[in-house]
Design goal:
The chain is an alpha/beta fold. The chain is built from 35 helices and 36 strands.
């Protein structure tokens, strides 16, 4: 027989030496033999007193094994490891390996084999060549009488190995003991993991923000855990550079990476590492907390380092699971568009490691005129075929449409058409699919695949082909270039990311860089740091580099740039030197990590300010106020100084440490100022600002201590925008600080206004204001909520009636008077506006000194100007020959768009919509038919109105110049009861006839949220009041359905009932009563 025994055992000894030792120590049993059938297949037999007994199929063994693997292994999925109880003649092992081929860029699937009979194992090792599979780590053997104990020890000792999800008996032996071993192993791992989870959660819950903040401000003792990925060179190199930078700062770093190709990151392994190391923070490149949200302690600081545009992290479900101590750094600008809070985003450019990518001192002339390093080597047509084939297997209904679109796109590109942008591809795919009634299948993932496989590949390969016409000395480095149909002759294989790559960059006259998402890329920054000169395709940029003269938009420009720079070494050197200076200042790992650590400390300061008790907060405020002794003409410098002083006092730094902290903050702010990011000291949340503002008010003593008084005034100006004179006057009355419920409400409402202006979230502004009124128990709390909702739905007359009646019945003063004036102005009632203005003016003039600020009197003057405009608009409205027939009562609906200062009026008699043109002082008829009960919504972007004529549509306009129709779902909707539009752009419609809520996501796709049989996510039970009975009850009671914006999602209301869909995900649930 063929003998593979030696090669197999040699490979096995490197992975499982105890298995080889046990086999060699066992005495051979001559009863077991291997023979061959007529087809040459091996059959394992055993000699018994009555004759020979076959332990494996006698005929068609390979075919039987292939069928077995197809039914039990391939059908279970490529990542589902099997456990084979018995080996037979080995063909099942080979079939399992073939049924689960390795996935590019992912872990391999192991096959676990248990064989209690030593001689059966020995015969199989001799009959088949398993050496490559063993060396790749895909085969694990458990042999002999102790196989069960070995199996249990294996899975409890190596938590990175995936448990088999199915057991497949192949032998005649009793499998009960082996299954019991597996059960014990799983139980033991589960119990230990559970205990670790409790202990680790308790450990991090005990670490307050102040303690964590001190560690981040002194990174010399910082313990960092970084999760790497052995299947991604890109992530491995990033992890290497982050580790080197943190260790150079004096920190301790532990890298978690799969030791073998079959290892998989899992909860048990992660918790074991966390329990042993107890890191101060965790860094995961291109991954968010949400993937293992139940594993990570919620108070463990977690950083997602986005190195590139990764669709996997641009998902709302993952973003929804972010915690208070989560931060995303790196390539972050696109994440805000999918709902991530701006303060949780910290932009960093691609960073480089100057130790590894130092310019070689002995760099000479390389073998190439042009070098290009990339793994995107697959031809566009090949990539398209692979993509379409995958969709044909999973979603055949769209494969044909996708194939036709790709064929047409490739034909255009091959004729030399300019490369389209991502938005262009999205629109073209959307249009092509909608023409086939497949528009619902278009999503970001599909567009990204087409953009990467077609446009991404074409942009690279067309550039190379252009340069190939100039020179034949081109080197293409990366995987699979040797398989390219046109460019294979330039393939040079894979090059190590490190000094070898740095030398290639430095010694090649022209290096090529192409990336369709962002100009700044780690490979470009590394290459420039190493002294390489690059020509790059123009792409979106954060403004880090200054190399416009080296960017090209098309192949013609690339050819011209090559002619200009190829022979001019001095000119290339000038460009490189300029870029190296920028990179050293802004884009090295030590500089970037210092900024990130300082920013994370600022977020922890925010947490500390939100949780510390009032007494300690007042002490902190007094300490900071006493330390600030300078006047700042520049508000930015004032903000930075106050933030630095507060952070230094919280962690009780020494003067030297405080000086270092000031330098760090200045550098951090300089970066944000240089690259146009937000002013990061404003990252303090509205809650933290409100609490500190209260402490500043409470800390006010006497103006005798001028230094402290000035410091407190500066802090209040930093927090709320209130100038020093207003602050002092508000507190100076008979030497005693004055505080009332009303002033406390105004302070908290200022926080809401701050949130509105600095974080454009209208709903958050409304919620904060309403919460402030409830907290201070003002009599107008319910009034404010009711009036705001009426104004949002376009019923200012009703809103005025409600607030005017409340003022008269409850004898209200202050803000309700202003609210009444606002309502009167919005319904264009000049008489009511004049009466409300006089009432507000009389109250302000009669108020005690200090109660009303000068700003409020200026506001009163602004209202006078608006009243004049109302009179002009009203006169023009009534004198217009095409005016509405009746202008009284509820027949007018008016809404304001604050972004464009447009006023929209709807009228029932003429069923027309008009908008007031302020520039020309006239009303403009939009020519759109509506009625008085038409559902509408107004946002900062414009007005959304439902067309009254069936089939209903939604019209959107930013003014009177341009209106557009928003396509509704493919299914016809004739009964839109109400509409709501979230500030982030998501839209919701209530279809009362079908009991369905339609939600339109940011990508334009509609999803139906059926109100029938929805689950209460709190109690995990059916909510009987939802469904058709609920809608029927509404009609019986003649109560309209209303849908409003609520938090991150929407809520349905009628009468005393409320059902809310939080953040647009999950199920509808009871959310209390109105």
């Amino acid at each position: 027989m063929s003998n593979f025994l030696e090669s197999n055992l040699t490979a096995l000894h490197a992975h499982q030496p105890h298995v080889v030792e046990r086999l060699l120590a066992a005495e051979p049993d001559s009863r077991y033999q291997a023979t061959q059938n007529n087809a040459g297949e091996w059959v394992i037999v055993r000699k018994d007193p009555l004759g020979l007994t076959a332990l494996s199929p006698i005929d068609n063994a390979a075919q039987v094994a292939a069928t077995f693997a197809a039914n039990h292994v391939a059908a279970a999925g490529k990542q589902s490891p099997p456990l084979l109880l018995g080996m037979r003649a080995g063909y099942e092992i080979l079939a399992c390996l073939e049924a689960q081929p390795p996935v590019d860029g992912g872990p391999k699937t192991p096959v676990y084999i248990v064989e209690p009979t030593m001689d059966v194992f020995r015969l199989n090792m001799a009959a088949h060549d398993f050496a490559d599979a063993i060396a790749s780590g895909r085969l694990y053997f458990f042999i002999g009488p102790e196989a069960g104990n070995d199996l249990e020890a294996f899975f409890t000792g190596d938590l990175a190995k995936p448990f088999p999800d199915r057991v497949l008996p192949l032998g005649a032996f009793d499998a009960g003991a082996l299954l019991e071993s597996m059960r014990r192993a799983k139980t033991q791992v589960t119990n230990i993991t559970g205990r670790r989870k409790v202990e680790i959660d308790a450990y991090y819950d005990a670490l307050d923000a102040r303690t964590m903040m001190s560690r981040f401000l002194a990174p010399g003792g910082l313990k960092t855990m970084i999760i790497s990925n052995r299947h991604s060179y890109f992530i491995q190199y990033s992890v290497r550079d982050i580790r080197m930078a943190l260790e150079a700062m004096g920190g301790t770093v532990r890298v978690i990476e799969e030791a073998t190709p079959v290892d998989r990151l899992n909860g048990a392994w992660l918790l074991a590492e966390l329990d042993e190391f107890r890191p101060d923070w965790l860094i995961f490149v291109d991954h968010l907390r949400g993937e293992y949200a139940k594993i990570y302690p919620k108070n463990l600081p977690f950083v997602c380092w986005a190195q590139d545009h990764m669709p996997s992290i641009h998902t709302r479900p993952s973003i929804r699971l972010l915690g208070r101590r989560d931060l995303c750094v790196g390539f972050t600008r696109s994440l805000e568009t999918v709902g991530m809070a701006p303060e949780r985003l910290f932009e960093l450019p691609p960073l480089t490691n100057p130790e590894i990518y130092a310019e070689p001192d002995d760099a000479g002339n390389g073998e190439h005129d042009v070098a290009f390093v990339s793994n995107i080597s697959k031809d566009a047509r090949e990539g398209a075929a692979t993509m379409v084939r995958r969709y044909r297997e999973g979603k055949p209904e769209i494969a044909d449409a996708l194939q036709d679109f790709i064929d047409e796109l490739l034909a255009r590109l091959e004729c030399g058409e300019d490369l389209p942008s991502f938005d262009t591809i999205y629109r073209e795919i959307k249009s092509a699919f909608e023409a086939r009634k497949l528009g619902a299948h278009v999503n970001d993932n599909l567009v990204v695949e087409v953009f990467d496989n077609i446009v991404g590949a074409s942009s690279r390969h067309r550039a190379i082909e252009t340069l190939a016409a100039k020179t034949d000395k081109i080197g293409l480095y990366g995987r699979r270039w040797d398989a390219h149909p046109k460019l294979s002759k330039f393939a040079r294989g894979v090059i190590d990311n490190g000094p070898e790559l740095a030398r290639l960059f430095a010694e090649t006259p022209i290096n090529l860089h192409v990336n369709q998402y962002q100009l700044e890329h780690p490979r470009l920054v590394d290459g420039l740091m190493a002294g390489g000169f690059f020509l790059a395709r123009r792409a979106p940029s954060i403004g880090l580099l200054e190399m416009d003269e080296c960017l090209f938009d098309d192949e013609k420009q690339l050819a011209a740039l090559f002619d200009r720079y190829a022979a001019d070494e001095e000119l290339r050197g000038e460009v490189v030197a300029r870029q190296q200076e920028i990179i050293r200042e802004w884009a090295t790992y030590d500089v970037g990590l210092t900024r990130a650590l300082t920013y994370f400390a600022a977020l922890l300061l925010d947490e500390y300010l939100c949780t510390v008790d009032g007494d300690h907060l007042r002490e902190l405020v007094m300490s900071v106020a006493a330390s600030v002794d300078a006047e700042y003409d520049d508000p930015r410098r004032r903000d930075l100084a106050l933030l630095q002083a507060m952070m230094a006092r919280v962690v009780t730094t020494t003067p030297i440490q405080a000086g270092v902290l000031a330098v760090k903050i200045a550098r951090l702010d300089a970066y944000h100022d240089r690259f146009g990011a937000s002013t990061w000291p404003r990252a303090l949340s509205a809650e933290a600002i409100a609490r500190v503002s209260v402490a500043v008010d409470a800390a006010w003593k006497s103006p005798d201590d001028t230094r402290v008084s000035n410091g407190l005034s500066l802090m209040q100006s930093w927090l709320t925008g209130e100038d020093s004179a207003q602050f002092a006057y508000r507190h100076r009355r008979d030497g005693v600080r004055r505080r009332t419920d009303l002033s406390a409400f105004r302070r908290d409402r200022r926080m809401a206004i701050y949130t509105r202006h600095h974080r454009p979230n209208m709903e958050r502004h409304r919620v904060l204001t309403a919460e402030a009124m409830k907290q201070h128990k003002l009599p107008e709390t319910d009034l404010y909520v009711d009036v705001i909702r009426l104004l949002q739905k376009g019923w200012p007359q009703r809103a005025f009636q409600v607030v005017d009646r409340a003022i008269n019945e409850r004898d209200l003063t202050g803000y309700p008077l202003r609210l009444a004036l606002e309502c009167a102005l919005r319904c264009w009632d000049a008489e009511a506006a004049q009466r409300s203005w006089e009432r507000l003016s009389d109250w302000m003039k009669s108020s005690p000194r200090g109660t009303v600020t000068q700003k409020s009197f200026r506001m009163l003057k602004d209202y006078e100007n608006r009243m004049a405009e109302v009179a002009t608009a009203r006169a023009a409205f009534e004198d217009d020959p095409c005016a509405f027939e009746d202008t009284a009562g509820d027949f007018i609906r008016s809404v304001h768009n604050w972004m464009h200062f447009r006023v929209y009026v709807l009228h029932s008699e003429s069923q027309r919509v008009r908008v007031w043109d302020r520039e020309n002082s006239k009303w403009v008829d939009l020519g759109i038919v509506f009625d008085a009960s038409t559902p509408l919504a107004v946002t900062r972007e414009g007005l959304y109105v439902v067309d009254a004529e069936p089939p209903q549509t939604v019209r959107f306009g930013r003014g009177f110049r341009k209106w557009e129709t928003i396509p509704l779902p493919d299914r016809r909707i004739d009964f839109i009861e109400d509409i709501a539009v979230h500030p982030n752009g998501r839209m919701a419609l209530v279809d009362s006839y079908e009991s369905v809520v339609w939600v339109r996501e940011l990508d334009g796709l509609w999803t139906a949220q059926d109100v029938h049989d929805m689950v209460d996510v709190e109690a995990d039970e059916k909510v009987a009041t939802l469904g058709s009975e609920w809608f029927a009850d509404i009609y019986a009671m003649e109560r309209p359905i209303r849908i409003d914006v609520a938090g991150g999602g929407f809520e349905i209301n009628y009468g005393p009932a409320k059902r809310a869909l939080r953040k647009g995900q999950g199920s509808w649930r009871t959310a209390g009563s109105l």
